[in-house]
Amino acid sequence: MRKLNKKIDMFCYKHPRFGIPNLMLYIVAISLAVWLLSIMDSSKTLLNYFSFSPNLIMKGQVWRLITFIFIPQDTSMWALLFFYFYYWIGSTLEREWGTPRFNIFIFSGILMTVIYGLVVYFITRQDVNIGTYYIYLSMFFSFATLYPDMQVLFMFIIPIKIKWLAYLDAAFFLFAMLTSPFPFNLLPLIAMLNYFVFFGADLIASIRGNRARYKKTTVNFNREKQKIKYEQRQKDYSHKCCVCGRTDVDFPNLEFRYCSRCAGYHCFCEDHINNHVHFTE
Predict the structure, then answer these.
(1) How far apart are CA 75 and CA 39, in angstroms?
(2) Span 62-74, average pLDDT
(3) What is the distance between the terminal CA atoms of the chain, rounded to a whole angstrom?
């Protein structure tokens, strides 16, 4: 997973213009339009026309490979809250990761979901009812991993940290896998593979206690400084951003700085010096 994640990072560095800027804005805007039309359509013809159906896709209705992502998860007024919430976390992730990485995350989740639905159809000859729930859930888990202590107002009243909502969603995630029949119970796992690709290595490392920020030890600043200087001599660069990986060799006009709020000796480019998760002990 770590190697694949590094390849994704390298692709993003080499293709900074890849992807659709403000992707979640377009997804939410189209989903909102579909929701408004579905309210006026009591027979739900539009939703049925947009839904994912391998049987109908094989008959030529290929638009269903895309349109299913615009079907709202809820057709009540709560859908407005969902639209706002997913736009908020999606736009935040895009600012944190950059447009190329965020687009890869979203489209890889959609692609794996579609492949799963088609494979199950060819095996069972049954239409698989798939949607965007688990794709959005993977996006939420990513947000909770980056900002675990951020608070939201649950039911508009109770302040609660994002990480506790993530634990609750993880319980429902496991429940869905345990109670659904095989192979349909694999949908949650398949749809969230992109989350494990992006964060799996860090999760495993944190569980094993190999990451310094999860250890209750004091960072030796001088030792970290010497370590980075040694790596710089080996790799022929003087500065490397800890977020995007760009160096002063690859981008000579880019400005690099060191963050005084991070534990240790960490360098960031001008795009991420004020936009990164601080390293802690």
Answers:
(1) 7
(2) 87
(3) 25
